[in-house]
Amino acid sequence: MPFKLPLPETPRLKTDRLVLRPLRLEDIPAVQRHFPHWAMVRHLVAKVPWPYPEDGAEINVRDCLEKRTRGEQFYWALTLNDGEDELIGRIDLRPDADVGAMRGFWLAQEYWGRGLMTEAADAVNAYAFEVLDWPFIDVTTNSANRASQRIKEKQGFTLVHVGVGDYIEGVREKAFWRLTQETWRSRRGGAKSL
Protein backbone atom coordinates (compact mmCIF):
# COMPACT_ATOMS: atom_id res chain seq x y z
CA MET A 1 0.00 0.00 0.00
CA PRO A 2 1.56 3.33 -1.00
CA PHE A 3 -0.23 5.23 1.79
CA LYS A 4 1.37 5.32 5.23
CA LEU A 5 -0.94 5.00 8.23
CA PRO A 6 -1.45 6.43 10.71
CA LEU A 7 -1.72 9.76 8.94
CA PRO A 8 -0.16 12.86 10.48
CA GLU A 9 -2.29 15.50 12.18
CA THR A 10 -4.65 17.37 9.87
CA PRO A 11 -2.82 20.55 8.86
CA ARG A 12 -4.37 23.97 8.46
CA LEU A 13 -4.31 24.93 4.76
CA LYS A 14 -4.92 28.38 3.28
CA THR A 15 -5.98 29.47 -0.17
CA ASP A 16 -6.71 32.93 -1.54
CA ARG A 17 -10.24 32.89 -0.13
CA LEU A 18 -10.43 29.94 2.26
CA VAL A 19 -9.01 28.47 5.41
CA LEU A 20 -9.19 24.68 5.57
CA ARG A 21 -8.96 23.76 9.22
CA PRO A 22 -9.47 20.45 11.01
CA LEU A 23 -13.09 19.45 11.53
CA ARG A 24 -14.24 19.71 15.15
CA LEU A 25 -17.29 18.98 17.32
CA GLU A 26 -18.22 22.67 17.33
CA ASP A 27 -18.96 22.34 13.58
CA ILE A 28 -21.99 20.09 14.17
CA PRO A 29 -24.64 22.89 14.12
CA ALA A 30 -23.22 24.36 10.89
CA VAL A 31 -23.14 20.93 9.22
CA GLN A 32 -26.73 20.26 10.28
CA ARG A 33 -27.79 23.65 8.89
CA HIS A 34 -25.87 23.62 5.58
CA PHE A 35 -25.73 19.97 4.53
CA PRO A 36 -29.23 18.45 4.32
CA HIS A 37 -30.59 20.10 1.16
CA TRP A 38 -31.88 18.02 -1.74
CA ALA A 39 -29.97 19.92 -4.45
CA MET A 40 -26.73 18.91 -2.75
CA VAL A 41 -27.35 15.47 -1.29
CA ARG A 42 -29.22 13.93 -4.22
CA HIS A 43 -25.92 13.20 -6.01
CA LEU A 44 -24.37 11.49 -2.97
CA VAL A 45 -24.06 7.76 -2.37
CA ALA A 46 -27.14 6.01 -1.01
CA LYS A 47 -25.47 5.24 2.34
CA VAL A 48 -25.99 8.90 3.35
CA PRO A 49 -29.28 8.87 5.31
CA TRP A 50 -32.16 10.67 3.62
CA PRO A 51 -34.24 12.36 4.81
CA TYR A 52 -31.35 13.57 6.91
CA PRO A 53 -32.06 12.95 10.61
CA GLU A 54 -31.94 15.68 13.24
CA ASP A 55 -28.83 14.07 14.72
CA GLY A 56 -27.27 13.26 11.33
CA ALA A 57 -24.50 15.84 11.60
CA GLU A 58 -23.59 14.82 15.13
CA ILE A 59 -23.40 11.13 14.23
CA ASN A 60 -21.31 11.86 11.13
CA VAL A 61 -18.92 14.35 12.72
CA ARG A 62 -18.28 12.09 15.73
CA ASP A 63 -17.60 9.14 13.39
CA CYS A 64 -15.20 11.27 11.33
CA LEU A 65 -13.36 12.47 14.42
CA GLU A 66 -12.94 8.88 15.64
CA LYS A 67 -11.37 7.94 12.30
CA ARG A 68 -9.19 11.05 12.51
CA THR A 69 -8.05 10.10 16.03
CA ARG A 70 -6.98 6.70 14.68
CA GLY A 71 -5.03 8.47 11.91
CA GLU A 72 -7.12 6.92 9.12
CA GLN A 73 -8.54 9.94 7.30
CA PHE A 74 -8.33 13.74 7.00
CA TYR A 75 -11.36 16.00 7.46
CA TRP A 76 -11.18 19.72 6.77
CA ALA A 77 -13.85 22.31 7.53
CA LEU A 78 -13.98 24.98 4.83
CA THR A 79 -14.21 28.50 6.21
CA LEU A 80 -13.93 31.89 4.53
CA ASN A 81 -10.67 33.85 4.98
CA ASP A 82 -12.50 37.09 5.61
CA GLY A 83 -15.41 35.64 7.56
CA GLU A 84 -16.07 34.09 10.89
CA ASP A 85 -14.71 30.64 11.54
CA GLU A 86 -18.01 28.95 10.58
CA LEU A 87 -17.90 25.82 8.45
CA ILE A 88 -19.42 26.39 4.99
CA GLY A 89 -18.43 23.01 3.58
CA ARG A 90 -16.12 20.07 4.02
CA ILE A 91 -13.44 18.20 2.14
CA ASP A 92 -12.05 14.80 3.11
CA LEU A 93 -9.00 12.79 2.11
CA ARG A 94 -9.24 9.04 2.70
CA PRO A 95 -6.47 6.66 1.65
CA ASP A 96 -8.27 3.67 3.17
CA ALA A 97 -11.67 4.34 1.61
CA ASP A 98 -13.62 2.26 -0.89
CA VAL A 99 -12.47 2.19 -4.50
CA GLY A 100 -12.67 5.68 -5.91
CA ALA A 101 -13.57 7.35 -2.64
CA MET A 102 -10.23 8.86 -1.65
CA ARG A 103 -11.48 12.44 -1.71
CA GLY A 104 -14.96 13.77 -1.11
CA PHE A 105 -16.45 17.20 -0.61
CA TRP A 106 -19.55 19.32 -0.24
CA LEU A 107 -20.20 23.06 -0.09
CA ALA A 108 -23.21 24.99 1.22
CA GLN A 109 -25.48 25.98 -1.67
CA GLU A 110 -25.16 29.72 -1.16
CA TYR A 111 -21.44 29.44 -2.04
CA TRP A 112 -21.83 27.46 -5.27
CA GLY A 113 -20.55 28.86 -8.56
CA ARG A 114 -17.66 30.86 -7.12
CA GLY A 115 -14.82 28.37 -7.65
CA LEU A 116 -14.38 27.84 -3.91
CA MET A 117 -14.49 24.05 -4.06
CA THR A 118 -11.92 23.93 -6.85
CA GLU A 119 -9.70 26.14 -4.70
CA ALA A 120 -10.13 23.85 -1.68
CA ALA A 121 -9.60 20.68 -3.72
CA ASP A 122 -6.41 22.14 -5.24
CA ALA A 123 -5.02 22.75 -1.75
CA VAL A 124 -5.87 19.22 -0.62
CA ASN A 125 -4.41 17.68 -3.79
CA ALA A 126 -1.21 19.66 -3.29
CA TYR A 127 -0.96 18.41 0.28
CA ALA A 128 -1.51 14.79 -0.80
CA PHE A 129 1.05 14.92 -3.61
CA GLU A 130 3.66 17.33 -2.30
CA VAL A 131 3.70 16.64 1.43
CA LEU A 132 2.40 13.08 1.77
CA ASP A 133 3.99 12.01 -1.56
CA TRP A 134 0.91 10.02 -2.62
CA PRO A 135 1.23 8.49 -6.10
CA PHE A 136 -2.43 9.06 -7.02
CA ILE A 137 -5.90 10.10 -5.86
CA ASP A 138 -8.89 8.05 -7.05
CA VAL A 139 -12.39 9.52 -6.88
CA THR A 140 -15.84 8.81 -8.22
CA THR A 141 -18.79 10.97 -9.05
CA ASN A 142 -22.41 10.60 -9.95
CA SER A 143 -22.26 11.41 -13.67
CA ALA A 144 -25.34 13.61 -13.26
CA ASN A 145 -23.31 15.91 -11.02
CA ARG A 146 -21.73 18.04 -13.74
CA ALA A 147 -20.32 20.61 -11.29
CA SER A 148 -18.33 17.94 -9.44
CA GLN A 149 -17.12 16.42 -12.71
CA ARG A 150 -16.03 19.84 -13.95
CA ILE A 151 -13.82 20.28 -10.86
CA LYS A 152 -12.13 16.97 -11.61
CA GLU A 153 -11.61 17.91 -15.26
CA LYS A 154 -10.09 21.29 -14.31
CA GLN A 155 -7.68 19.56 -11.94
CA GLY A 156 -6.45 17.09 -14.54
CA PHE A 157 -8.19 13.92 -13.36
CA THR A 158 -8.51 11.27 -16.06
CA LEU A 159 -11.77 9.38 -16.53
CA VAL A 160 -10.82 5.74 -15.98
CA HIS A 161 -14.15 4.02 -16.54
CA VAL A 162 -17.88 4.33 -16.04
CA GLY A 163 -20.10 1.97 -14.07
CA VAL A 164 -23.32 2.13 -12.11
CA GLY A 165 -23.80 3.48 -8.60
CA ASP A 166 -26.51 3.70 -5.96
CA TYR A 167 -27.20 7.32 -5.07
CA ILE A 168 -29.79 9.07 -2.93
CA GLU A 169 -31.60 10.06 -6.14
CA GLY A 170 -31.49 6.45 -7.41
CA VAL A 171 -29.31 4.26 -9.59
CA ARG A 172 -27.16 6.41 -11.85
CA GLU A 173 -24.04 6.27 -14.00
CA LYS A 174 -20.91 6.38 -11.82
CA ALA A 175 -17.67 7.81 -13.20
CA PHE A 176 -14.29 6.67 -11.83
CA TRP A 177 -11.44 9.20 -12.03
CA ARG A 178 -7.71 9.20 -11.24
CA LEU A 179 -5.19 11.99 -10.79
CA THR A 180 -1.55 10.92 -10.58
CA GLN A 181 1.22 12.78 -8.82
CA GLU A 182 3.05 12.95 -12.13
CA THR A 183 0.11 14.62 -13.86
CA TRP A 184 -0.35 16.98 -10.92
CA ARG A 185 3.30 18.04 -10.98
CA SER A 186 3.40 18.47 -14.76
CA ARG A 187 0.35 20.75 -14.62
CA ARG A 188 2.03 22.75 -11.85
CA GLY A 189 5.29 23.09 -13.74
CA GLY A 190 7.00 20.45 -11.59
CA ALA A 191 7.55 22.76 -8.62
CA LYS A 192 6.29 22.23 -5.11
CA SER A 193 3.79 24.86 -4.00
CA LEU A 194 3.43 24.19 -0.26
Keywords:
5-stranded antiparallel sheet; 6 helices; 194 residues; Aminopeptidase; 30% helix
Structure description:
This protein has 194 residues and is of the alpha+beta class. The protein has a domain at 13-135: Aminopeptidase (3-Layer(aba) Sandwich). 30% of the residues lie in helices and 27% in strands. The chain has 6 helices and 8 strands, in the order ββαααβββαβαββα. The strands form 2 sheets. The chain has a 5-stranded antiparallel beta sheet, with helices on both faces. Helix 1 crosses helix 3 and helix 4 packs across helix 5 (146-155). The protein starts with 12 loop residues before the first strand and ends in a 7-residue tail after the last helix.
Q: What is the C-level CATH assignment of the domain at 13-135? A: Alpha Beta
User: In angstroms, what separates the terminal alpha carbons?
Assistant: 24 Å
The computed structural class is alpha+beta
The CATH architecture of the domain at 13-135 can be given as 3-Layer(aba) Sandwich
Backbone CA Rg: 16 Å
Number of helices: 6
Question: What would you call the shape?
Answer: globular
Q: Identify the CATH homologous superfamily of the domain at 13-135.
A: Gcn5-related N-acetyltransferase (GNAT)
The share of residues in extended strands comes to: 25-35%
- Describe the biggest sheet? 5 strands, antiparallel
Helix percent band: 25-40%
Which regions contain 5 or more consecutive residues with pLDDT less than 50? none
Strand segment tally: 8
- The spatial strand order of the largest sheet comes to 1-2-3-4-5
Order of helices and strands: EEHHHEEEHEHEEH
Mean pLDDT: 94
Q: What name does CATH use for the topology of the domain at 13-135?
A: Aminopeptidase
